[in-house]
Specification:
Elements: E1 2-4, E2 12-13, E3 29-32, E4 40-47, H1 50-54, E5 58-67, E6 72-73, E7 83-84, E8 104-113, H2 125-132, E9 136-146
Parallel strand pairs: 2-9
Antiparallel strand pairs: 1-3, 3-6, 4-5, 4-8, 5-7, 8-9
Amino acid sequence: MKLESSSFENDGTIPKKFGYKNGNVSPSLIISDVPESTKSLALIMDDPDAMGAVGKVWVHWVLWNISKDVEKIDENSIPENSIEGETDFGEIGYGGPAPPDKEHTYIFKLYALDSILDLDKGSTKSELENSMKDHIIAEAKLIGIYAPQ
Protein backbone atom coordinates (compact mmCIF):
# COMPACT_ATOMS: atom_id res chain seq x y z
CA MET A 1 0.00 0.00 0.00
CA LYS A 2 1.24 3.50 -0.80
CA LEU A 3 0.42 6.97 0.53
CA GLU A 4 1.61 9.99 -1.44
CA SER A 5 0.64 13.63 -1.88
CA SER A 6 0.48 16.00 -4.82
CA SER A 7 0.90 18.81 -2.26
CA PHE A 8 4.45 17.84 -1.18
CA GLU A 9 7.06 15.12 -1.71
CA ASN A 10 7.69 12.37 0.85
CA ASP A 11 10.37 13.71 3.25
CA GLY A 12 9.83 17.15 1.65
CA THR A 13 8.64 20.49 2.98
CA ILE A 14 4.93 20.90 3.64
CA PRO A 15 3.88 24.23 2.04
CA LYS A 16 2.85 27.04 4.42
CA LYS A 17 -0.85 27.04 3.41
CA PHE A 18 -1.25 23.64 5.12
CA GLY A 19 -0.04 25.10 8.45
CA TYR A 20 -2.47 25.61 11.32
CA LYS A 21 -1.89 29.40 11.39
CA ASN A 22 -1.58 29.83 7.60
CA GLY A 23 -4.85 28.60 6.12
CA ASN A 24 -5.12 25.20 7.83
CA VAL A 25 -5.91 23.45 4.54
CA SER A 26 -5.46 19.68 4.57
CA PRO A 27 -3.09 18.43 1.82
CA SER A 28 -4.16 16.18 -1.00
CA LEU A 29 -3.44 12.50 -0.40
CA ILE A 30 -3.07 9.79 -3.04
CA ILE A 31 -3.76 6.21 -1.99
CA SER A 32 -2.73 3.18 -4.05
CA ASP A 33 -2.12 -0.58 -3.82
CA VAL A 34 -4.78 -1.12 -1.14
CA PRO A 35 -4.97 -4.84 -0.21
CA GLU A 36 -7.91 -6.74 -1.70
CA SER A 37 -9.30 -7.79 1.69
CA THR A 38 -9.53 -4.19 3.01
CA LYS A 39 -12.93 -3.11 4.36
CA SER A 40 -11.97 0.49 5.28
CA LEU A 41 -9.02 2.84 5.68
CA ALA A 42 -7.96 5.02 8.62
CA LEU A 43 -5.52 7.93 8.76
CA ILE A 44 -3.55 9.45 11.62
CA MET A 45 -1.36 12.54 11.25
CA ASP A 46 0.84 13.41 14.17
CA ASP A 47 4.05 15.16 15.20
CA PRO A 48 6.49 13.03 17.21
CA ASP A 49 8.91 16.00 17.45
CA ALA A 50 6.38 17.78 19.69
CA MET A 51 7.58 15.47 22.47
CA GLY A 52 10.50 17.86 23.06
CA ALA A 53 8.34 21.01 23.00
CA VAL A 54 5.12 19.93 24.73
CA GLY A 55 5.96 16.55 26.24
CA LYS A 56 3.80 14.38 23.97
CA VAL A 57 3.24 13.34 20.37
CA TRP A 58 0.83 16.00 19.05
CA VAL A 59 -2.19 14.70 17.13
CA HIS A 60 -3.09 16.76 14.04
CA TRP A 61 -5.69 14.65 12.24
CA VAL A 62 -7.61 11.41 12.78
CA LEU A 63 -9.89 10.13 10.05
CA TRP A 64 -11.51 6.71 9.68
CA ASN A 65 -14.07 4.67 7.75
CA ILE A 66 -12.52 5.94 4.53
CA SER A 67 -13.84 3.78 1.68
CA LYS A 68 -11.30 1.22 0.45
CA ASP A 69 -12.04 2.51 -3.07
CA VAL A 70 -10.85 6.06 -2.36
CA GLU A 71 -7.75 6.77 -4.46
CA LYS A 72 -7.44 10.48 -3.72
CA ILE A 73 -8.42 12.80 -0.91
CA ASP A 74 -8.54 16.32 -2.33
CA GLU A 75 -7.06 19.34 -0.58
CA ASN A 76 -9.27 20.69 2.21
CA SER A 77 -11.76 17.81 2.04
CA ILE A 78 -12.56 14.41 3.48
CA PRO A 79 -14.04 11.43 1.62
CA GLU A 80 -17.78 10.90 1.71
CA ASN A 81 -18.97 8.90 4.76
CA SER A 82 -15.59 9.07 6.50
CA ILE A 83 -15.48 10.31 10.10
CA GLU A 84 -13.06 12.77 11.74
CA GLY A 85 -11.85 12.71 15.30
CA GLU A 86 -10.55 15.26 17.77
CA THR A 87 -7.05 16.69 17.49
CA ASP A 88 -4.81 17.93 20.28
CA PHE A 89 -6.01 21.44 19.36
CA GLY A 90 -9.32 20.33 20.92
CA GLU A 91 -11.04 20.54 17.52
CA ILE A 92 -12.62 18.02 15.18
CA GLY A 93 -11.00 17.80 11.76
CA TYR A 94 -7.62 18.68 10.31
CA GLY A 95 -5.24 20.75 12.41
CA GLY A 96 -2.18 21.68 10.37
CA PRO A 97 1.46 21.83 11.40
CA ALA A 98 2.22 24.44 14.07
CA PRO A 99 5.68 23.78 15.49
CA PRO A 100 6.27 26.07 18.49
CA ASP A 101 10.05 25.95 18.44
CA LYS A 102 11.84 24.57 15.38
CA GLU A 103 11.38 22.43 12.27
CA HIS A 104 9.23 19.37 13.00
CA THR A 105 8.51 16.13 11.15
CA TYR A 106 4.86 15.27 10.50
CA ILE A 107 3.84 11.68 9.84
CA PHE A 108 0.70 10.69 7.94
CA LYS A 109 -0.04 7.02 8.67
CA LEU A 110 -2.59 5.18 6.56
CA TYR A 111 -4.02 1.89 7.77
CA ALA A 112 -5.89 -0.73 5.76
CA LEU A 113 -8.40 -2.44 8.06
CA ASP A 114 -10.38 -5.66 7.82
CA SER A 115 -13.45 -3.95 9.34
CA ILE A 116 -15.50 -0.78 9.41
CA LEU A 117 -15.09 0.95 12.76
CA ASP A 118 -17.94 1.75 15.11
CA LEU A 119 -16.52 5.00 16.50
CA ASP A 120 -18.28 8.31 17.02
CA LYS A 121 -17.21 11.57 15.38
CA GLY A 122 -14.80 13.37 17.68
CA SER A 123 -13.15 10.21 19.01
CA THR A 124 -9.48 10.55 19.90
CA LYS A 125 -6.36 8.99 18.38
CA SER A 126 -6.11 6.52 21.28
CA GLU A 127 -9.75 5.47 20.83
CA LEU A 128 -9.08 4.99 17.12
CA GLU A 129 -5.93 2.97 17.81
CA ASN A 130 -7.82 0.77 20.29
CA SER A 131 -10.57 0.15 17.71
CA MET A 132 -8.01 -0.72 15.01
CA LYS A 133 -6.14 -3.21 17.20
CA ASP A 134 -6.11 -6.66 15.56
CA HIS A 135 -7.73 -5.24 12.40
CA ILE A 136 -4.70 -3.75 10.58
CA ILE A 137 -3.87 -5.51 7.30
CA ALA A 138 -1.34 -3.00 5.92
CA GLU A 139 0.22 0.38 6.70
CA ALA A 140 1.74 3.17 4.65
CA LYS A 141 3.50 6.37 5.69
CA LEU A 142 4.02 9.82 4.24
CA ILE A 143 6.43 12.20 5.96
CA GLY A 144 6.54 15.97 5.67
CA ILE A 145 8.71 18.67 7.24
CA TYR A 146 7.38 22.03 8.47
CA ALA A 147 9.23 24.89 10.15
CA PRO A 148 7.82 27.88 12.05
CA GLN A 149 7.94 31.17 10.18
